[in-house]
Design goal:
- The protein is built from eleven helices and 17 strands.
- By secondary structure, the protein is an alpha+beta fold.
- The protein has two domains: about 250 residues, Rossmann fold; about 140 residues, Coagulation Factor XIII, Chain A, domain 1 (Distorted Sandwich).
- The strands form four sheets. A six-stranded mixed beta sheet has the order 5-6-7-3-8-9, sandwiched between helices.
């Protein structure tokens, strides 16, 4: 028996294909509907063909490919909403699919009524649907509009409702097809945190045009091209090949990929490096109006949190080096992140931490006080005591977008601690402009020189 068959699997596709009939003239379709079939009137367009795919239980698989590559068709067949023309798709367990936003919703019914129907369609009993109704509504967070018709909802509200139901039906396989792209920053972060927790107990199929998100979230990626599997493997390898192909098509150039660099040992060292300023591009960046600007900065007292409650976070602020509120962040800005907490019980080894995450909930960087105080930790803090922590750091440049500052207070050491209060979105802010065009963060440029070493010698360029 092969290892693939021996391992438990959640999804198995064999020879999967989906063809749509394409008509040259509208009345040809009508004739076929009337039963007057003629092979000459229609031709088949294969959206998917010859797909063999096995997804093991517990895997997180990202599906990448250009528009029209067959990604959504594949997920729809696996979810059971589209019938395959040929081949088979077998799923073990309960499936929750987040595909088209309106799928499964009756626009004339209220959000509450749709929650009950959709939950039962996904496998819950009427009693289970009623018992989980309040939790689903709270997760969606659309307030009193839950009792209004869904036809009055925005696309973001429908996405909230659909995800909230999927998060409460005990799914074994979760299918997500770019649904999160229409959500607001806070809800997207909540969904991403839930997805990361779901990975520990379920199987995830994830379609996204964000290759960084696929690399971060998925262990494995599948590249679809014109309805066929072009590459299947480790996510970073597949994404690298796919990105190179897309870039090559966009620029009209042939892209190559590889791994490993050839290090030379004859690099001249006769010219010492010059002293570098904080960032040699800063004046030019400021002149062009591309300096990172932090605005819409606000503490979020209603942010989701979790913890034991032996201590709580009262406030979180981002301040400049002189402890003043920050409204403009230079590309190499030094800031203070201030976290004010109250101990409701004695904390023997208090630890305070912070994090900064992007709108997808991906933590860009984080730190905590234990790393500063060392194994002995901070001195104990008695119950009823308020205490303040300042983290002084130089922020990297951030791309334009929405971000969140998280904070946490705990008691113990990194491998043995009690989390008392953690909020991943304690402060929200936006970077309105930035000089960055690639990457999730940028560091100050300390120097850059280009100089000739020797005349170029003729040499064979490896293929």
């Amino acid at each position: 028996m092969s290892s693939e068959i021996a391992e438990p699997w959640a999804v198995s596709c064999r020879g999967l294909g989906k063809a749509y009939r394409v008509y040259d003239r509208p009345h040809h379709r009508m004739l076929e509907l009337m039963g007057l079939r003629d092979p000459e009137r229609a031709r088949k367009r294969w959206a998917l063909r010859g797909v063999d795919l096995t997804i093991r239980t517990g895997e997180c698989v990202g599906i990448v490919g250009k528009n029209g590559a067959g990604k959504s068709t594949l997920l729809q067949i696996i979810a059971g909403t589209v019938r395959a023309t040929e081949g088979t798709a077998t799923v073990r367990g309960r499936v929750a699919a987040l595909l088209e936003l309106n799928a499964g919703f009756n626009p004339e019914l209220t959000g509450r009524e749709n929650v009950g129907l959709r939950a039962m369609v996904l496998g819950l009993t009427p009693r289970q649907a009623r018992e989980r109704m309040n939790d689903i509504i709270a997760f969606a967070g659309i307030g009193t509009q839950i009792d209004e018709p869904v036809r009055t909802y925005s696309s973001g509200m429908r996405a909230r409702l659909a995800f909230a139901v999927a998060a409460h039906v005990d799914a074994d396989v979760l299918i997500v097809d770019e649904t999160l792209a229409v959500g607001d920053g806070m809800f997207v972060q909540k969904c991403m945190r839930w997805i990361r927790a779901f990975r520990a107990r379920g199987t995830l199929l994830f379609v996204s045009h964000s290759t960084q998100l696929v690399t971060d979230l998925c262990d494995r990626a599948v590249w679809l091209e014109e309805g066929r599997v072009l590459l299947d493997g480790v996510s970073r390898d597949v994404v690298r090949e796919y990105t190179a192909s897309i870039h090559g098509q966009a620029t009209g150039q042939s892209m190559r990929t590889g791994r490993g660099l050839q290090q030379t040992t004859d690099t001249p060292t006769d010219q010492p490096a010059a002293a570098a300023p904080a960032d040699i591009r800063r004046e030019e960046i400021e002149r062009l109006g591309l300096a990172a600007v932090m605005d819409n900065l606000r503490f979020n007292p209603d942010a989701d949190w979790w913890g034991r409650g032996g201590a709580t976070i009262d406030s979180v602020r981002v301040l400049d080096r002189d402890a003043r509120p920050v409204s403009r962040l230079p590309t190499d800005g030094e800031v203070l992140i201030e976290v004010v907490c109250t101990a409701h019980e004695r904390l023997e080894r208090p630890v305070v931490g912070y994090s900064i995450a992007n709108h997808r909930g991906l933590i860009l960087f984080a730190d905590n006080s234990w790393l500063i105080y060392g194994p002995d930790g901070c001195p104990p803090i008695n119950a009823g005591t308020r205490f303040i922590t300042h983290f002084r750091l130089r922020l990297p440049a951030l791309p334009a977008g929405e971000y969140a500052v998280g904070a946490a207070v705990a008691d113990g050491v990194p491998k043995n601690f009690v989390q008392h209060h953690r909020s991943d979105a304690a402060v929200l802010f936006r970077v309105a402009s930035s000089h960055l065009v690639e990457g999730i963060a940028g560091v100050p440029m300390l120097g850059c020189t280009i100089r000739t070493i020797e005349p170029a010698a003729d040499r064979e360029v490896p293929a």
